[in-house]
Design brief:
DNA polymerase, domain 1; 15 helices; DNA-binding; Integrase_SAM-like_N; DNA binding; about 55% helix
C-alpha cells in the first residue's frame, strides 16, 4: 500500500479508508488528495466524519462556495467524500446529498496542420521532436507519452501498446510509417548516447531508469510553441485535441476516433465536431439553400 506522509496519528477511520483505496489500486496521488479533502471536512465539522449528518454535508458544501472554492476543488472534494460515505462508511444516503455542478464545457484549443508542422520542427533535439510527434501522431495523453517503453512499439502490426492509460485501461494506438521513422531516428540517437536501456523507457528522464517527467514535456511544448511563433495557448494535450480534430476533418468515422483516443463515451469524442472547422465549412447553410432555390440554382456542396 502506498504510504502517505502525515504529521498526525492515523485514526482507525483514516486507516480503513486507506485500506479501501489500496484494495482498489488507487494511485498514491489520488489517495493523498482524498485524505486531504476528508481531513478538511472533519476540520469543518470539528468531529469525526463518521458522525456526519445530511445537514452537515449541506453546510460543508455551502461553506466551500462561500469560501470561493473553484469547480475543480469542489469536484475533487465530492469524489473524496463519495468514496468515504459509499465505500468506507457504507452510507450511500450521505453520498447522494453531495451536489456537483457540472463545469462549463469549453471548446478545446486546436492547432492547424501548418501550426503542428511548425511546432514539430521547433524542438532543439530529436528526443523532444519524437515525444511531440508521438503525442500528435498517435493522439496520446502526456502521461502516456512519458511512460512509453521501447517494447510498446510494435512495428510489425504498426501499433503502439498503451498500458494502464486513463482509468488504468490498456489499449492500442495507431503507428503511422512517418511516426515510426521519427521514433527510429530517436532510437538510433538514444542508443548512440547510451541512454536507452534494454526493455527500458522509450523517453528516459534525467536518470535513465526513470521516464521523462510530464513537467519536462510541458516545458518542451511551451518552448517549441514560442520558437515556432505560435501565439495560441499550447500544451501537450493540445496535440491530442489536434490529432482528433484533424482525423475528423479527414472524414474518419467518429467511432474509430473514439477507440484511438480511448474514450469510454462517444459524447466525449463528439466534442471535436464543434471545432472541426473544415467539416463546418463543408456544410451548406440553409440561407445558401434558400437563395439557390430563389435563383433557380443548385447550391454547391
Amino acid at each position: 500500500m502506498a504510504s502517505l506522509p502525515t504529521d498526525r496519528p492515523v485514526t482507525p477511520l483514516r486507516q480503513r479508508m486507506l485500506d479501501d483505496m489500496a484494495m482498489r489500486s488507487m494511485r498514491a496521488r489520488t489517495q493523498h488528495d482524498y485524505v486531504r479533502h476528508v481531513r478538511a471536512f472533519a476540520a469543518f465539522l470539528g468531529r469525526s466524519p463518521d458522525t456526519a449528518t445530511a445537514e452537515d454535508v449541506r453546510r460543508f458544501q455551502v461553506h466551500q462556495r462561500e469560501q470561493g472554492a473553484g469547480e475543480a476543488v469542489i469536484g475533487s472534494a465530492v469524489s473524496a467524500l463519495r468514496f468515504l460515505f459509499t465505500v468506507t462508511l457504507e452510507r450511500p444516503d450521505l453520498s447522494r446529498r453531495l451536489v456537483l455542478a457540472p463545469p462549463p464545457r469549453k471548446l478545446p484549443d486546436v492547432l492547424s496542420v501548418d501550426e503542428v508542422a511548425r511546432l514539430l520542427e521547433a524542438p532543439p533535439g530529436i528526443k523532444y521532436r519524437a515525444t511531440l510527434g508521438v503525442a500528435y501522431g498517435a493522439g496520446l495523453r502526456v502521461s502516456e507519452v512519458a511512460h512509453l517503453k521501447a517494447d510498446d512499439i510494435d512495428s510489425k502490426r504498426m501499433l503502439i501498446r498503451i498500458e494502464e492509460g486513463k482509468r488504468r485501461k490498456d489499449r492500442n494506438a495507431m503507428l503511422s510509417p512517418q511516426l515510426l521513422e521519427l521514433l527510429r531516428l530517436w532510437w538510433r540517437e538514444g542508443k548512440r548516447r547510451c541512454v536507452l536501456l534494454p526493455h527500458g523507457w522509450l523517453f528516459p528522464g534525467r536518470s535513465y531508469t526513470d521516464p521523462v517527467s510530464t513537467r519536462q514535456l510541458h516545458r518542451a511544448v511551451h518552448e517549441a510553441a514560442e520558437a515556432a511563433g505560435i501565439r495560441k495557448r499550447v500544451r501537450p494535450h493540445t496535440l491530442r485535441h489536434s490529432f482528433a480534430t484533424h482525423l475528423l476533418e479527414q472524414d474518419v468515422d467518429i467511432r474509430v476516433i473514439q477507440v484511438l483516443l480511448g474514450h469510454s463515451k462517444l459524447e466525449t469524442t463528439a466534442l471535436y465536431t464543434k471545432v472541426a472547422t473544415r467539416t463546418i465549412r463543408a456544410v451548406t447553410g440553409p440561407l445558401d439553400q434558400l437563395m439557390a432555390l430563389m435563383e433557380g440554382k443548385t447550391p454547391a456542396g
